[in-house]
Design a protein that fits this description.
The complex is a heterodimer of chains A (about 120) and B (about 170). Chain A is an all-alpha fold and about 120 residues long. Chain A has one domain: Nucleotidyltransferases  domain 2 (Four Helix Bundle (Hemerythrin (Met), subunit A), Up-down Bundle). In chain A, about 75% of the residues lie in helices and about 0% in strands. Chain A has 5 helices and no strands. Chain A is globular. The model of chain A has no long low-confidence stretch (mean pLDDT about 90). Chain B is an alpha+beta fold. Helices cover about 25% and strands about 30% of the residues of chain B. Chain B has 4 helices and 8 strands. The longest helix of chain B has 15 residues. Classes of the chains: A mainly alpha (about 120), B alpha+beta (about 170). The interface between A and B is medium-sized, with 23 and 26 residues.
């Protein structure tokens, strides 16, 4: 999942540079989600047969993992809100909100990519 | 408190208690039944962060950690509400603009709070279940009514929970 996470994150940067905020919100979100998913599979034994959808399950993992769980749980929820706004709501995702989330979301993504690596 | 209905009611009530002027609508995400969109409309710019933070805090305080329900804050400012969700937008002075409950003598200040920054002045018409209607006209500068008409002068204690329709 690391390569896919990197690919989505870079695509998010390119979309944002090009002014495509909705596409950027979606790519950035999946960049983080895939980092968490890779860690959950490698370290938590997560598989698709577990109860609950993958998005809410990954959010639950983030909210229960590590010292920064409350902080990053909220940032992840805000990024998902922007992504679902971009995907389903009539208005565009808010660019200012997205840009303000990116530094913390990048840290979160790097944290889970690192935690997923074999010891 | 683990059912979606219980959580929906608790979240809606909590937001309404803190931000009574803003319409709240909670829907299930099209992706997952356990993900709830907590939509709050016509939020003033200075309140947007506080409303979002309240929803994110409710995730931790109201919902059991492992029940799998996720709250997503979707807070719409006034501009977005007017453009994309006109049904939730503040009404112009020509139309009905809101309903709330409370003592009649607090109505001018409540109406003022609801429309602060949106109107220079407002005429409030009160439909009361006991007394005849009264009209209170007031100016934004100061809460005190500048003129009262009608027979309504006081509200019995039993009317605390009555609902008053307000039309500008």
């Amino acid at each position: 999942m690391k390569d896919k996470s990197n690919e989505n994150w870079i695509a998010g940067q390119k979309c944002l540079d090009d002014g495509n905020v909705n596409a950027a919100a979606s790519r950035y979100y999946y960049g983080v989600l895939q980092a968490v998913l890779g860690w959950a599979r490698a370290k938590k034994g997560y598989d698709r047969t577990q109860k609950g959808g993958v998005h809410s399950k990954m959010a639950e993992f983030v909210r229960s993992e590590g010292k920064g769980r409350d902080f990053y749980g909220r940032k992840f929820a805000e990024l998902q809100s922007l992504r679902e706004t971009a995907d389903y709501q009539p208005e565009p995702a808010d660019e200012t909100d997205l840009r303000s989330l990116l530094p913390d979301c990048e840290k979160m993504r790097e944290y889970y990519l690192k935690k997923a690596e074999p010891i | 408190m683990n059912t979606i209905e219980d959580i929906t009611n608790a979240v809606r009530d909590t937001i309404r208690r803190a931000f009574s002027a803003y319409p709240v609508d909670i829907q299930t995400s099209p992706e997952e039944e356990t993900t709830l969109w907590v939509q709050v409309f016509a939020v003033r710019a200075e309140d947007v962060r506080a409303v979002k933070d309240m929803i994110l805090q409710l995730q931790d305080e109201v919902i059991d950690a492992e029940c799998g329900i996720l709250l997503l804050p979707m807070v719409k400012n006034i501009e977005v509400t007017k453009k994309y969700y006109p049904q939730f937008a503040p009404q112009d002075p020509a139309g009905a603009c809101g309903m709330f409950s409370g003592l009649l003598d607090t109505l001018p200040s409540q109406a003022y709070e609801m429309h602060r920054g949106l109107l220079e002045s407002l005429t409030v018409e009160v439909e009361h279940p006991v007394f005849s209607s009264a009209q209170i006209e007031y100016q934004e500068a100061g809460y005190a009514p500048t003129r009262e008409r009608g027979r309504q002068t006081e509200v019995p204690a039993s009317a605390d929970e009555s609902r008053y329709a307000m039309a500008a």
